[in-house]
Structures are given as C-alpha cells and as structure tokens.
Amino acid sequence: MLYWLYEILKDYDIPGAGMIPGISFRSAAAIILSLFITTVFGKKMIRILQRKQIGDEVRDLGLEGQMQKQGTPTMGGIIILMAIIIPTLLFARLDNVYILLMLITTAFLGLIGFLDDYIKVFKKNKQGLAGRFKILGQVSLGLFVVATLFISEDVKVREHVRDENGKYLTMQTSDPVTGETQEVFVTKEVKSTKTTLPFIKKNEFDYAWLVAFAGDAARWLKWVIYAIAIILIITAVSNAANLTDGIDGLATGTSAISGATLGILAYVSGNIIYADYLNIMYIPNIGELTIFIAAFIGATVGFLWYNSYPAQVFMGDTGSLALGGILAVFAIIIRKEILIPLLCGIFLVENLSVVIQVSWFKYTKRKYGEGRRVFLMSPIHHHFQKKGFPEPKIVTRFWIVGIILAVITVATLKMR
C-alpha cells in the first residue's frame, strides 16, 4: 500500500519519498513494525487471552516443571499472524504474485491451526481438529501453490540459452561509457520446474529429469511430479514445526533462524548482479519477498519476548502450523526446497524422532509382544528433558545447531 501511495505522490517532490521503492527500506520498515506489533500489542493480546481463560491444558507427561505451565494462554499464534500480515500489506507490492501467495499461505494455515486450537480450548476436545482435515488443508494448499506457479505468467526463471549442440550462447556487448566490450550469456525467461541442488557443480536439478523417459508426455508429467513433491514438503515441514513446538521458544527461535536464511537466499536470487556473481538461478521479481520474510523474522523474534522460558503465552497450532508452512512455501517459491532438510534440520530430526519411536514400538510389540522405545520420549526434545537437561539449555543448544545449519545452507551457494 505504501508503494502505491508513493506512485501517487512521487511527482510532489516529498523529502525522503525516494527511499520507498527500495526493498531495503521497506524491509527495515516491515521488521520494525512487526517487532512493535508483537511486543506492544502482544502484551494486550495476552491479557485478553487471560481474561477469556483461553489457557493450555497440559497433559502430565512426567516432565519436570511441566504442570507449572497449566493455564498458560494459548492461541498466541494470532499475534504472529498479525505481525506478518499487517507489515506485508503496508510495505510490500500487492501486485506481486509471490507476495500474494505468501499472504494466502499465512492466512490459510493460520485458519487451520486456529480451528484446531478452538476445538481444543472451547470444545474441550484434546484431540482438536481431526488429522485428516489438517492433511486435506495442507494438500489443498500444495495444489494451490502448484497451480499458481504453473498458471501465472509472472512466475518465471531466467535461464541461459543453448545452441543445438548444448553449448551456452554468448554475445558481445559494449559499455556505453568506457566503450569496453565483454562477452555475456544470452538468457531468456521461461516456465521451469528447476530448483537448486546443493554441493554439485551447476547447482540445479530439474524435476523433468525424473520423467525424461515419458517422451512428449514429460511436458505435463513433470508438473505432476512437481506437485507431489510440493505437497509432501508443505505437509512435512508444517507438521514438523508443530511437533517442535513443545518447549518454550524452541519452534519460534528455530523458525526465526530459518526465516533469516531464506531471506538471504531470496535477496541474492532476486538481484541479477548477485545471482550472476554467485552463478545461481535468477528469479525476476522474487526480491520483493524480502519484505515478507523481514516481517516474518520480526514476528518470530518479537514473539520470543513472551514465549521464551518461562513462556507467558504459547503460539498453539495457530502459529506452529503457519510457521512451518510459510517456511516450506517460501523455500519452494525461491527454488530452494531441496535445501529444507539441511536448513530445517531441527524440524527434520524432531519429525524423524517421532517416526522412529512409533515405528520401533509397533515393530517390537508385534515381534516380542511388548513395545520398546528408542528414545525416553519423543519428540526428541522431550528425550533430553527426561535425561534431566534444563529446558532453556535444550532450547539454546538447538538454536546453536540451527545457526550452524543455516551457515552451511548459505555456504552451499559457493560449495559445489
């Protein structure tokens, strides 16, 4: 909205107005407003939740200090959603298909999480929204994302043009000032199912390669494979973030770290100079997403003000499902979804710990008549709690691991 206001007022020579089109300025404004909403409005929201007695009913899992959290306000994810959506609406260009896609993702998954929390709190049903409805919502979102990326003419990547022998075409250009000539690659903007594959020379992977055997049918079959991959990624990351939200500040801080990393990747992918220097895929108009992810970072960091140990509010499924889904869709849009297992390694380990625990328990029960466990409790952060580690130490160490994984993820731009 601010950008459109600038378009109206730019002819009036208003001091400082020239900064508005810049992505850096609008990103800074978005993160400041997001922090303001979470820290200032967040306190008022917590009081409202307390007055309405919207408290979390903690199941007794035998964890130290667990029952002290009984009655802590939940559904605090509403604060996070507002701190993401409002700054984005104010500072981002709303004619950008990527911004619209992220806003829809945030609102849609936030609504699913809200319904889950509502059923738990107000209907006194600890199971919440049935799992099949959550999965249906995540699958629906995945199909919507694929359809948007397939249909929208604004969704393209810039690729080097090859000749009939497979070699990149080049041309000579001259600098209008110095007159110096240089050889540059010939490029074109195309619809593509290519994505980033780390640790290899060309740093790219095309889903079309998986169906190359299909001949002419591969032109549409590649989008089917792409759709399946996107649905699996959104479902897995969204649910993993939900599982990670088990101790104070863990999911919030981990999401902030992953979001900051994706912001860096989006910025360099949307800047033709940096993309050319790093020899990575350039995606036109993707830089605008930097504003959205700035609001995301501000929302998660600001929420930590009240969610760090001992938490004054829980985000609930309203926040956790949305955070995971946002990270997944954002990574898909900037063609970095294959980096998710590395970047979101904490989420991956949390998810795998549950899968391993349940699978091993069922297997040993069938074989020996008695279920056995790999971990003292899953998800794995509860395992460390059972071993006697204080909650803040677990969270801090998980954050440190998350930062290490984030640094490695950024380094993959050059490590090939």
Describe this structure in words.
59% of the residues lie in helices and 6% in strands. The longest helix is centred in the first third of the chain and has 29 residues, at 23-51. By secondary structure, it is mainly alpha-helical. The protein starts with a helix and ends in a 5-residue tail after the last helix. Helix 3 (77-91) packs across helix 10 (316-333). A hairpin with a 6-residue loop joins strand 2 and strand 3 (181-185). The protein is built from 14 helices and 6 strands. A two-stranded antiparallel sheet has the order 1-4. Strands 2-3 form a two-stranded antiparallel ribbon.
Question: What's this model, at a glance?
Answer:
The chain is mostly helical. The protein has helices at 2-9, 23-51, 77-91, 97-122, 131-151, 218-244, 250-269, 272-278, 289-307, 316-333, 340-343, 345-368, 380-386, 391-411; strands at residues 157-160, 170-174, 181-185, 187-190, 194-196, 204-206. The mean pLDDT is 86.
The radius of gyration computed from the alpha-carbon positions, rounded to a whole number of angstroms, is 23 Å
The unreliable regions are none
Oligomer: single chain
- Give me the strand/helix succession: HHHHHEEEEEEHHHHHHHHH
- Percentage of helical residues? 55-70%
